[in-house]
Specification:
The structure is a homodimer of 346-residue chains.
Chain A (H helix, E strand, L loop, with lengths): L9 H8 L3 H8 L7 H14 L5 H8 L4 E6 L3 H6 L1 H16 L3 E6 L3 H11 L6 E5 L6 H8 L4 E4 L14 E5 L1 H14 L5 E5 L5 H13 L8 E3 L4 H14 L5 E4 L2 H13 L9 E3 L5 H4 L8 E3 L2 H20 L10 E3 L2 E3 L5
């Protein structure tokens, strides 16, 4: 329930002054475009009633709540167990705090939740949304766009940039370039039978990393690529399948550190030495994973916290541009660089 | 920005019909208490303008957003690393989803964040709040109460139940009774020099567990009680201090599993066998901790997820009662039972 129930409202001031709410708003916020006598009448009403513009009134004028939604369209268990989200949220939170914006975290589970999240997003409680939806489902971004809620997506969306109707701001790392660096590093070590454990191929990051792998090794037989699911178990299963199909493979590029950790476990169980027999390289440089594996993991680093910060920055910039005189100016997606971090596994 | 900007508003209908917004609301939602001719005029205006009550209008009428804030007034790093929060949020989410309410998670860091969270809480975006503020600071609950935002606190608040001005709904487990069970279990094993690693004593749960310990062992010398901070490191430091002061202690009751895990590490390093030399019992039955320690931890179980569910239920019930004919009916705090879970450490 609104806190101002017992305080004089904007409506009360408007009624007392015999003007519209919009006029009261304009006067209270500087009086631009309101004739002198009218403005004086409004000021008198404000004084008489002891009206104090509250947050809701400020919102009416600035059309800003000072609140940004972060939507995680993934199961909650994943949100709490995958350090990726904690790092992104930390970066987002840092940037939003610096600009006195409240981070409003909306967790979703099933499709029913998603509908409810859509309702909240489009009901004027937040000024914009940062959406993480790793799979091919774009229902929330579409909903937000239709409702005019500015949105930035975490990671390249599944639809092509060239589709203007669905043009979307996003922040992603250079997945394809990073994957190329990983494979080149393995080639540089003299490896010649290099396998790839891909992420789920309904996620753009997985596709981009596979594309980067193929950029460098276009003639790789299908037997050397196995699809995982970004979990340690998925990485382990993929590693087992690869060893079954190509017993003499000498290197593996896993599309995530978490999958690489599962692969390392399988290699240890099978008595394959890393990196002597098989070199292993991951992707992400997830601190709590890459540094703790045995041996510590060589990987491709993406700055996850910084990407969160950039998402927030891009959204706030978009809100500014929309509020500015040239309301049609548009910001652009951001691709952050990756870099090779050499530890012991490759 | 509100999605309905281009759709006819409640205000437009009110203006067209020449009545107040409140009257339009009442007619649109059943017409109770509106005279026939007036109601007819409003219905005509609704038809003419093609007005469809939207979420915001529904909110005005029912005074419900269908959204509940969960506020965690702890550093974000703690929120993501302490499984306690994940379990509580899971329980809360389950209950809110079942009643089609959106969980709106507000993370706070420093005092500046807290002010901003207060602003969001009291600006009419949510119908109520579930607040976790483990320390003696009650600024957010007080703010929420003043703004008329129904609130349920996670854990007994620091102020006494008897302070009617600050009467607060909360859900907590029977910390004191659980602590008594822990100490009695150690006594039953024949232990006679039983130490206690307390939590930070600015938190009611810590105080209650210490009180339960003293209920059973009122003559315990101060040397057998050390204060920790609910971290493994704090538990380790407290264990070292206790061994220093009372080298022949034969049992430890730690006020949390996490602190017990730190204590176990110290005992192992010092060559003290658990439970042979020193029996150890924890509190919480935090699945990811108690089952993984070496040896597995005997502990006092509290059903953390269920407590989250009950918090949500209590808040929704409170909202119902307030909306009902007897708006003054009040719900009561809930204390959930604990139980001893015997594993290997005591």
């Amino acid at each position: 329930m609104p806190p101002a129930a017992s305080r004089p409202t904007l409506e009360a001031v408007a009624a007392r002054a015999g003007v519209s709410r919009a006029t009261v708003s304009r006067v209270v916020n500087g009086g631009a475009g309101v004739r002198g006598p009218l403005a004086a009448r409004v000021r008198a009403a404000v004084e008489e009633l002891g009206y104090v513009p509250n947050q809701a009134a400020r919102t009416l004028v600035t059309r800003r709540n000072g609140a940004i939604a972060v939507v995680v369209a993934e199961p909650q268990s994943r949100f709490f167990s995958d350090p990726f989200f904690a790092q992104q949220v930390r970066g987002i939170s840092r940037e939003l705090s610096a600009h006195d914006n409240q981070l409003v975290l909306l967790l979703t589970g099933g499709p029913a939740d998603r509908e409810r999240v859509g309702r909240f997003l489009t009901s004027g409680h937040v000024d914009g949304a940062l959406i993480f939806s790793l799979h091919a489902d774009d229902s929330l971004p579409v909903l937000a766009r239709k409702a005019g809620v500015p949105t930035v997506i975490g990671g390249r969306p599944t639809w092509p940039d060239t589709d203007a109707r669905r043009r979307t701001l996003y922040v992603d790392c250079d997945n394809r370039g990073g994957a190329r660096d990983a494979v080149r590093h393995l080639l540089g070590l003299g490896r010649r039978r290099i396998a790839h454990i891909a992420g789920p191929l309904d996620q753009p990051a997985s596709v981009d990393r596979l594309d980067g792998f193929r950029d460098v090794l276009p003639d790789t037989p299908a037997a050397l690529v196995a699809e995982g699911d970004f979990t340690p178990e998925g990485g382990a299963r993929a590693m087992e399948a690869l060893l079954e199909r190509v017993p003499d493979l000498d290197a593996v590029f896993a599309a995530s550190d978490v999958m690489a950790s599962g692969a390392l476990r399988v290699l240890r169980t099978r008595g394959r030495r890393v990196p002597d027999d098989i070199a292993v390289i991951g992707f992400d440089d997830m601190v709590s994973v890459a540094e703790w594996t045995d041996p510590p993991l060589t990987t491709i680093r993406q700055d996850i916290e910084e990407m969160g910060r950039l998402m927030a920055q891009l959204l706030l910039r978009t809100l500014e541009l929309q509020a500015g005189p040239d309301g049609t100016a548009a910001a652009s997606p951001i691709i952050t660089p990756t870099r090779l971090v050499v530890r012991a596994s490759a």
